[in-house]
Design goal:
- The protein is 42% helix and 14% strand.
- By secondary structure, it is of the alpha/beta class.
- Helix 6 links the parallel strand 4 and strand 5.
- Helix 8 packs parallel to helix 9.
- It is elongated, with a radius of gyration of 22 Å.
């Protein structure tokens, strides 16, 4: 059965943890869907993870639509959330609604996610009222990295913590179906989760929220040079790749079990 904002809300109400993993292409999305993940995030992190950019700022609407469509082709049950990329919503509410609609109509996503606090409450409200589910992203917001002064822990002083709590409550009030908290002290995450009736998803925000999200490539250990505190490699893909390289070089792969046989009749004709 296809996941919806109602089934996700029911998980929150029943204290059932929500799982969310990023995916940027068909094969990954299909596997995650078959394994039963609740939500798939088509994140603008694809700029860094897939396209090799230094940050997410260069990601375009064209990029997001392209990858969201690929993910949607592989998904039957998971709820797909696609990021609104940098400057696709900041300039105006009209642009925010227009580009959100594109991610659903062309990208076949089920919802959009946008970064930012109180400034973007009117945008969340307008998008939601247009019939498009919105996830609010608070805490470390990578699109605002130049304003934040880097990828740092957020909400670690009284003023910023109180502001984040209020931003989360306001996002819920204007129509957000969920809130994502990134790089936030777990105690603050716990308070926000207790105060909100909508699901709270965390990344680097501790376990006291309604669900967790990690980047597919981080879970599998694709990036050997990048490992922030909140990332855990659940499987080491590099070991499998090393084994392939070694077996090819030593001549043990492919063996007969992984090769095709020609018939004796064909061999007699050839020789």
């Amino acid at each position: 059965m296809k996941k919806t904002i109602l089934t996700l809300q029911a998980q929150k109400d029943k204290n059932e943890k929500i799982t969310m993993i990023t995916a940027y292409e068909y094969s990954a999305a299909k596997l995650l869907d078959q394994l039963g993940v609740d939500m798939i995030l088509v994140g603008d992190s694809l700029g860094m993870v897939v396209l090799g950019y230094e940050d997410t700022l260069s990601v375009s609407m064209k990029d997001m639509i392209h990858h969201s469509k690929a993910v949607a082709r592989g998904v039957k049950e998971a709820f797909i959330v696609a990021d609104l990329p940098f400057m696709s919503y900041q300039a105006s509410i009209k642009e925010a609604v227009k580009n959100s609609a594109k991610l659903l109509k062309k990208g076949r996503a089920n919802a959009v996610k946008l970064e930012g606090g109180s400034t973007y409450l009117p945008h969340i409200k307008a998008i939601s009222e247009a019939g498009i589910p919105v996830m609010s992203h608070l805490g470390l917001t990578p699109q605002f990295v130049n304003v934040l002064g880097g990828y740092k822990l957020q909400g670690n002083d009284e003023f910023k913590a109180e502001q984040m709590i209020q931003d989360a409550k306001n996002a819920q009030e204007v129509g957000a179906f969920a809130v994502l908290l990134e790089c936030v002290p777990w105690q603050l995450t716990q308070k926000i989760t207790e105060k909100l009736t909508i699901p709270v998803i965390g990344i680097g925000a501790g376990k006291f929220c309604d669900g967790q999200v990690l980047v597919w490539h981080d879970i599998l250990g694709f990036n050997l040079d990048f490992k922030p505190k909140f990332v855990k490699n659940f499987s080491d893909i590099s070991e499998g790749l090393k084994a392939f390289i070694q077996e090819v070089k030593e001549g043990s792969f492919p063996d007969k079990a992984h090769s095709f046989n020609a018939s004796k009749e064909l061999l007699n004709k050839l020789y």
